[in-house]
Automatic annotation (TrEMBL):
Statement: the UniProt record of this protein carries the keyword Flavoprotein: yes
Keyword Flavoprotein: yes
Swiss-Prot/TrEMBL cofactor(s): FMN
Lineage, broadest ranks: Bacteria, Bacillati, Bacillota, Bacilli, Bacillales
A Pfam family per the record: Oxidored_FMN
Keywords: Flavoprotein, FMN, NADP, Oxidoreductase
Domain spans labelled NADH:flavin oxidoreductase/NADH oxidase N-terminal: 17-305
Name the record gives this protein: NADH:flavin oxidoreductase
Length: 378
């Protein structure tokens, strides 16, 4: 087994990616984050030795922080597949303990991505097919009625389920948690006016639509104490609504983020499909992670097509792979401090050695992203 420390060569060009990262609650050997990627290799919701080995391979090969695939909180309608990992129940949590051990033995760090898909769940799927799908207003992502609005009691139970998972993550030895608040899933369904038409404290103007997330973060904070890192992943775009915007201007974004910071978020993972795109049409070059860092002062993670020439939703919708692409533009942005960390999805799914190849300038060994990569867990 190789440890990160054994790599000696770092090309000057890639240097910005391999500077250590220091923040009040989280320190990392370098700036590379493995993006959360659902794999569907956990039958019965239990991540096994193969899942542990998959993550260990990335930790051994120069990834600073692994964010796990979305893992389901304890709610009967949290997920849409029996092969997505659970983050509750003794067997699944034992499986996760094995994952943490494997990653730590290899010198890496790891945070679980806590996930509830909300109304994005197709009826009749997942571990409890009879459970109705839930969301703030019972609306699907097209804004059509597909269920009942959540009651306040049910909302309280969901918040408690996130907090339970956060506490378990800390107990199992994870290095932080990521809350999945992006891509049109449950937390994002509260954020978004199309899926949240509630008229109580959880719906209405943008501030009220942040309330669910803020309460989730605050409850997680109570469960993990003051020093454990809580990261929030959020996105403007939603599945099937790529032009959607939670915030249309930097001012709106500041108002959106403030309650989330106040509730206890330490880092923001700003999900975009192409990292080089400006977040707003105001002439500024900053991407969403750039603006989020500027507005909150918190460390941010950028993501989207790093090292690849086609964005990832094309893979899902059109079954397209992607060729390799240079990362010079990314390095420039990182070096000038636009954001702090860089999440890499498909390139790392494809190739566990991606980070070390970048570090050592072995560009000729970088591989195109093939569809078959998603069928195997290596
Ligand atoms: C197979 C696959 C599964 C994914 N699953 C998740 C997930 O569980 N949670 C999440 O927030 N994003 C998920 N994503 C999005 C990635 O985290 C990432 O944001 C996206 O792939 C863009 O990064 P890339 O261009 O480097 O691949 C997934 C992406 C892929 C390709």
């Amino acid at each position: 087994m190789m440890h990160k420390e054994e790599f000696t060569m770092t090309t000057d060009t890639a240097k910005a990616l391999f500077e250590p990262f220091r923040s009040p609650k989280l320190s990392l050997d370098n700036r590379i984050v493995m993006a959360p990627m659902t794999r569907g290799f956990s039958p019965g919701g239990v991540p096994g030795d193969d899942v542990a080995a998959y993550y260990r391979r990335r930790a051994e090969n120069g990834v600073g922080l692994i964010v796990t695939e979305g893992t389901l909180i304890n709610h009967p309608a949290a997920g849409a597949s029996t092969k997505w990992p659970h983050f509750y129940g003794e067997e699944a949590l034992n499986g996760w303990a094995g994952v943490v051990r494997a990653v730590h033995e290899a010198g890496g760090k790891i945070a679980p991505q806590l996930w509830h898909v909300g109304m994005a769940r197709k009826a009749g799927t997942g571990t409890h097919p009879d459970a109705p799908s839930v969301g703030p207003s019972g609306l699907n992502l097209a804004g059509e009625r597909a269920g009942e609005p959540l009651t306040e009691r049910e909302i309280a139970d969901l918040i408690a389920a996130y907090a339970q998972a956060a506490g378990d993550a800390k107990r199992l030895g994870f290095d932080g948690i990521e809350l999945h608040g992006a891509h049109g899933y449950l937390i994002d369904q509260f954020f978004w006016a199309v899926t949240n038409v509630r008229t109580d404290a959880y719906g209405g103007d943008m501030l009220k639509r942040t309330r669910f997330a803020a309460e989730v973060i605050a409850a997680c904070r109570r469960a993990v104490g003051p020093d454990f890192p809580i990261m929030l992943r959020y996105s403007q775009w939603k599945d099937g609504a790529y032009d959607a915007k939670l915030a249309a201007t930097p001012d709106e974004l500041a108002r959106f983020l403030e309650p989330l910071v106040d509730a206890g978020a330490d880092l923001f993972h700003c999900s975009t499909r192409r990292f080089w795109e400006p977040a707003f049409d105001d002439g500024a070059d900053l991407n969403l992670a750039g603006w989020t860092k500027k507005l909150t002062g918190k460390p941010t993670v950028t993501v989207g097509s790093v090292g690849l020439d086609l964005e990832f939703t094309r893979f899902f919708k059109e079954r397209k792979g992607a060729g390799t692409a240079g990362i010079e533009g990314l390095l420039e942005r990182l070096a000038r401090g636009e954001f702090d960390l860089v999440a890499v999805g498909r390139a790392l799914l494809n190739d566990p050695e991606w980070a070390v190849k970048i570090r050592e300038g072995r560009d000729d060994e970088l591989r195109a992203f093939e569809l078959e990569a998603t069928q195997r867990l290596y």
